[in-house]
Amino acid sequence: MKKNKQVGYLGPEGTFSHEAVLKVVNDDSVIVPYDNIIHIFESLENDEIDEAIVPIENSTEGSVLVTLDALMHFDLNINKELELPIKHNLLVQKGKNLDDIVVICSHQQALAQCRNYLNGINKQVHAMPSTANAARYVTELSTAAVIGNEILSEKYNLEILEHNIQDYDNNVTRFVLISKESQDEITGGDKTSIVISLKGDKPGGLYEILKVFADLGINLTKIESRPSKRGMGKYLFFIDMQGHKNEPNIVKALSKIESEVGLLKILGSYATINVGGN
Amino acid sequence: MKKNKQVGYLGPEGTFSHEAVLKVVNDDSVIVPYDNIIHIFESLENDEIDEAIVPIENSTEGSVLVTLDALMHFDLNINKELELPIKHNLLVQKGKNLDDIVVICSHQQALAQCRNYLNGINKQVHAMPSTANAARYVTELSTAAVIGNEILSEKYNLEILEHNIQDYDNNVTRFVLISKESQDEITGGDKTSIVISLKGDKPGGLYEILKVFADLGINLTKIESRPSKRGMGKYLFFIDMQGHKNEPNIVKALSKIESEVGLLKILGSYATINVGGN
């Protein structure tokens, strides 16, 4: 009998990551909550789970830095991506109002996505490991409120004090499905992610790399810099492009830039899972 | 009698920003602590202070996103920069040890710069408005510890439990001095910062922009992407270059790219203040 597939996600239940994992798994998969993103990568590396879904980028706040850094440091592949619309709400114990609240708790990314709202109400802010952790905390403390998913209201018996408090309406989080396996089949609608460092750490050298892609007609969908952590002014660049790593023009581009960069790591080729709005 | 210059910083006393502001002000300046970076920008805009020092980038954790976003949205100029070595310590109430500690508090950037350390000790983590706020909190709660500057130990009567807990040894934070004034004089050792958006939001279009700088022999020291907050895949690029905005090759480059970008904002030209190690 085949073992059910184990799929990790950033738990506990009720987080946006939980919503995302439910959109990608089959009925016979087992989903496994983790308390932080690094532990998810470690479990994949140790074969404790088969695959995992992790948040990688938000349209308001930018990249999920832990995920980018982990993709750089672990040998895992991106096999799918999906984009989930994110709507934030302020939830409190039933019967409480904003005047009762001293501290607002949530995951750091959720807090950042509601920065204008938080500046407007001028309360203390606590970053917690997840929106669900924060919700549990609020069930125990009547002067605390949580920012998160509507689902939290049922799950933790909380009242939604305000809806849609995210700073920008078109707030979307992009998730990626990662595993040890590599998606080698071309679907025709693929994207490929790579990370590079520049020889001599000269940001201007990025020009030579982008030229290779431009000359071969490859469309880049993202260019993101991250400090390489080896000192000020030294960066890694995360680049996403349309096309599969086994398509001829991408094969050509990657072999061409390989000699021009300090480091080239292919993070995977993957198709996009379409999800409806929520 | 001339009014003393008022210089804002991210307070309270004892933060790394406090250390930075002391390195740039004259003896007759008055330094003014603020509780968040947006309030500093607002006060400058309303002429309540003359200039301010704000953190913009850390060699481990990357850009200070609030500062980048505020530089984009307020009409202020960068007039100077300085780089400050950052060493983090774990401080507790006197006589306490790590087993007594339930929660670790600090500013979000400090927590991020000690991520490996925090993953290793597995305690609850609270983000607070500043390292000094967190230290004050620790004086009231014996089960809390703060990550921050050595200075905090004297100021808040705390004990340093561990020294140098930052994940990377060459941890440096870059600060910029901002005001309504513009630094129009060429010193010969200047840098210029700009922010651009790409026409049609095609990241590949960055290639055309970088080509202009490459062709004119302008050395770029930083290329950083930020979401433009108008939806997934739409970015702003923050670009730093060597040279002053009034030097001929930079004048030429900026006028050339102006027609090729969606938006071009010059954030200022500035010299670097040299500070010793700490």
Characterise this structure.
Two copies of one chain form a homodimer. The first copy, chain A, contains nine helices and 15 strands. Chain A is of the alpha/beta class. In chain A, strand 13 (220-227) and strand 14 form a beta hairpin. Chain A is globular and about 65 Å long. At the A-B interface, helix 4, strand 8, helix 8 and strand 13 of A face helix 4, strand 8, helix 8 and strand 13 of B.
Record keyword descriptors for this entry.
homodimer, 278 residues, alpha/beta, D-Maltodextrin-Binding Protein, domain 2, Alpha-Beta Plaits, 3 domains, ten-stranded mixed sheet, five-stranded mixed sheet, 15 strands, 28% helix, globular
Described by its quaternary structure, the protein is homodimer
| Mean pLDDT across every amino acid position of chain A | 90
**How far do the termini of chain A sit from each other?**
36 Å
CATH class of the largest domain in chain A: Alpha Beta
Structural category of chain A is alpha/beta
Overall structural domain count of chain A: 3
Strand fraction of chain A equals: 35-45%
At CATH level 2, the architecture of the largest domain in chain A is: 3-Layer(aba) Sandwich
- CATH topology-level name of the largest domain in chain A: D-Maltodextrin-Binding Protein, domain 2
Unreliable parts of chain A: none
Backbone shape of chain A: globular
Radius of gyration of chain A: 20 Å
**What is the helix/strand order of chain A?**
EHEHEEHEEEHHEHEHEEEHEEHE
Number of H/I helices of chain A: 9
Measured by residues with Cβ under 8 Å of the partner chain's Cβ, the largest interface is: A-B, 54 and 53 residues
Helix content of chain A: 25-40%
E-strand count of chain A? 15
How many strands, which pairing sense, and closed or not: the largest β-sheet of chain A? 10 strands, mixed
Can you tell me the CATH superfamily of the largest domain in chain A? Periplasmic binding protein-like II
